[in-house]
Design a protein that fits this description.
Elements (H helix, E strand, L loop, with lengths): L6 H10 L1 E4 L5 H17 L10 E4 L6 H7 L2 H11 L3 E11 L7 E4 L7 E2 L4 E7 L10 E3 L19 H5 L9 E3 L6 E5 L4 E3 L8 E10 L3 E2 L32
Antiparallel strand pairs: 1-9, 2-3, 3-11, 4-10, 5-12, 6-9, 6-11, 7-8, 7-10
Length: 250
């Protein structure tokens, strides 16, 4: 693992709502994690059929190799520096766009999907485990869109869904960020982002670690259907997330 973030990177993240961090892990580790990611995908026979991406959630609780990456102190230090507040792990997941998948991940914000009450800041580390040029489905961001909160949940399968609720975003510039294996982007939970289809012969493999305000409380009214990883069994509304399943960052 390499060093954490610079002051310039922190400033760029807070201005734009996202930042690219090159070489946050080395290429050998990226290759090792990519093999573990594909093995984790192949172990599960009943993954939901979705042309947009293959999603494997909570891999840190299932795979010792990928747990290393999810609980990486370098990722944790970078996330904490960018957010400027104490954080805890919310969840992780693999997002694999299969070769020639033919489906984009349309513009959306992450925060409306999450059952968070009183959160001051949430963000995601999107770690490329293979080279992700534009043709393989890299991320595109709308700078400054992290200042837009209070929107309803958006549909990642509908190209116009976010733009119908926030039409001003139609005219904002977009920034597409290709990544080399081992590079990472961090993006704020309100930053609008998308990913093009994978038009190549190889899978796009991303390992995503989601961090939330350490003092975030659970709001069951916002738990999205079909996402049991965000359920906190037996925890009533307004109670902090339990440390065992949502560990605080060091």
């Amino acid at each position: 693992m390499t060093n954490s973030v610079t002051e310039d990177q922190i400033a760029a993240y807070r201005r734009d709502g996202f930042v690219r961090i090159p070489n946050i892990i080395d290429k050998d580790d990226a290759s090792r994690y990519a093999k573990a990611a594909l093995a984790a995908r192949d172990r599960i026979s009943d993954l939901p059929a979705d042309p947009t991406f293959t999603r494997v959630a909570q891999v840190w609780q299932q795979d010792d190799t990928l747990r290393e990456l999810t609980l990486s102190p370098v990722l944790a230090a970078a996330a904490t520096a960018l957010a400027g507040i104490p954080l805890r792990l919310y969840h992780d997941h693999l997002l694999i766009k299969e070769p020639h998948n033919g489906a984009a991940t349309e513009f959306h914000q992450d925060q409306p999907y999450w059952p968070h009450l009183g959160s001051r800041h949430s963000l995601s580390a999107w770690v490329a485990l293979v080279d992700v040029p534009a043709a393989r489905g890299c991320m595109t961001f709308i700078p400054g869109s992290h200042r837009l909160d209070g929107l309803r949940r958006q549909d990642v399968h509908d190209a116009d869904n976010l733009m119908r609720v926030a039409p001003q975003l139609l005219w904002e510039p977009r920034v597409t960020v290709p990544l080399r294996a081992g590079d990472c982007t961090f993006h704020h939970a309100f930053t609008a982002h998308s990913a093009a289809p994978n038009r190549t012969d190889d899978p796009r493999i991303a390992h995503v670690v989601v961090y939330m305000d350490a003092d975030t409380r659970y709001d069951p009214r916002k738990r999205p259907a079909g996402q049991p990883l965000t359920e906190v069994g037996g925890v009533p509304e307004g109670i902090p997330f339990p440390d065992d399943d949502f560990p605080r960052l060091p």
